[in-house]
Every structure is written in structure tokens, then in C-alpha cells.
């Protein structure tokens, strides 16, 4: 299983546009083959700072997600929504 933490800093004036666009991404990503979970969280201290926590069955599922229309559309839109590039960390997790 692979876990992704995608950190996003959103322009305050574009917060509502971000929240609308990210809902489409979440909805479509949750039904993808190989998706285990897909959730957005907001930092309670730093305004307009979010992290998407994703769990994927395997690398193939992650690659399919990254090439999906909804993901690519979000990446294109995010160029105008973020104050800095998204930072993603990928973890390879094993069950105990």
C-alpha cells in the first residue's frame, strides 16, 4: 500500500474556487480502481494550508490516478490557486 501526503498552500482570495475544484477531484478519486481512501484536511493553525491524505493499493493505481482526467484538470487549475507548488510525500506502507 502507498500513502501520499500532498501539502497545498492556497491563495486566500481563491479559497472558495479551490474548495469547489478539489471536491471534484476527491469525488472521482475515491471511486478509482485501487483507491483505499482519499481525504482532505486543513491545518488548524495556518490558514489556507491543506493536506490531501491518499491511500493506494499499489504503484499501478497511483500511476493511473496521476494520469486521470480529473487529476490532470486539478493540477492545471492549481497553478492559479496555490501560493507555492504542491509538495507531495509518498510512503510505502506494509501491514503488521
Kindly describe this structure.
With 96 residues, the chain is α+β, with helices and mostly antiparallel strands. It has a single domain, classed as Alpha-Beta Plaits (2-Layer Sandwich), CATH 3.30.70.100. It has three helices and four strands. A four-stranded antiparallel β-sheet has the order 2-3-1-4. A hairpin with a 6-residue loop joins strand 2 and strand 3. The longest helix has 16 residues. The radius of gyration is 13 Å and the shape is globular. The mean pLDDT is 96.
Name a few traits of the molecule:
3 helices; 31% strand; globular; single chain; 36% helix; four-stranded antiparallel beta sheet; Alpha-Beta Plaits; alpha+beta; 96 residues
Straight-line distance between termini: 12 Å
Elements, N to C (H/E): EHEEHHE
Just give the CATH class. Alpha Beta
The main sheet comes to: 4 strands, antiparallel
Low-confidence stretches: none
Strand order of the largest sheet: 2-3-1-4
Please give the domain count.
1
- Average of pLDDT: 96
The multimeric state of the shown protein is: single chain
CATH architecture: 2-Layer Sandwich
Strand content: 25-35%
Strand segment count = 4
Please tell me what the overall shape is. globular
Percent of residues in helices: 25-40%
| Count of DSSP H/I helices | 3
Provide the CATH topology: Alpha-Beta Plaits
Q: In angstroms, what is the radius of gyration?
A: 13 Å
Secondary-structure-based class equals alpha+beta
Amino acid at each position: 500500500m502507498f500513502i501520499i501526503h500532498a501539502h497545498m498552500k492556497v491563495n486566500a482570495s481563491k479559497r472558495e474556487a479551490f474548495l469547489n475544484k478539489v471536491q471534484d477531484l476527491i469525488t472521482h478519486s475515491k471511486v478509482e480502481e485501487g483507491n483505499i481512501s482519499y481525504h482532505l484536511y486543513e491545518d488548524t493553525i495556518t490558514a489556507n494550508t491543506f493536506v490531501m491524505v491518499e491511500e493506494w493499493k499499489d504503484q499501478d493505481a497511483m500511476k493511473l490516478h496521476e494520469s486521470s482526467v480529473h487529476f490532470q484538470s486539478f493540477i492545471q487549475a492549481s497553478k492559479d490557486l496555490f501560493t507555492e507548488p504542491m509538495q507531495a510525500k509518498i510512503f510505502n506502507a506494509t501491514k503488521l
